[in-house]
């Protein structure tokens, strides 16, 4: 029987409490702590169901709030939160300065609809910070036999596909990084021993990490003024004064 999105998110939240999930969470948190302080505004919306309430703690945005697509999840620290579907956000258009989309596309029935909602609620020049599993990482080798469980049951995406989707919606890419180069081993000790791989791979900006981190800015489309064409009226035998010229649409 197919699991509902809410069940998927609960399962993903449980996975993030396991050794591999904790190691990944630490890498994501470290990068968000580096990225978010440079994004400013009044409102930050965090959308995700992994029950990690500290992801946006480094943000300088004045009013953060969370939205989870899974009812009954832990809202985390004292941040206003509510339950809503990611493709139907109860937020007015052009009111949010930063959206943090945390592993939502992988479990969404219509990922394009989720991104359209993000574009709708973002202010012009607002920023999207996106975390998503990479379909072109060695972690793909661990998926056979685990597809019924999160995160393996979700749909992973390539960086090119994510960039194409964002470009079609009018976003300019600001940053793209690959995170988490350790294999998904269930041992905490092995995860700790392999931790130096992260610094080496990230120092050289290597591709192929298990997770994409993308930062994109909502483009503002400016209107280009069109010069009106002024033509004199046809001569009718009498001189036509300059004031007789008219504007043709």
TrEMBL record:
Source superkingdom: Bacteria
Entry GO MF terms: S-adenosylmethionine-dependent methyltransferase activity
UniProt protein name: Methyltransferase domain-containing protein
Record's keyword annotation contains Phosphoprotein: no
Keywords: Methyltransferase, Transferase
Residue ranges of every copy of the Methyltransferase type domain listed in the record: 79-130
Biological processes per GO annotation: methylation
InterPro entries: Methyltransf_11, SAM-dependent_MTases_sf
Taxonomy of the source species: Bacteria, Pseudomonadati, Pseudomonadota, Gammaproteobacteria, Thiohalospirales
Residues of the signal peptide: none
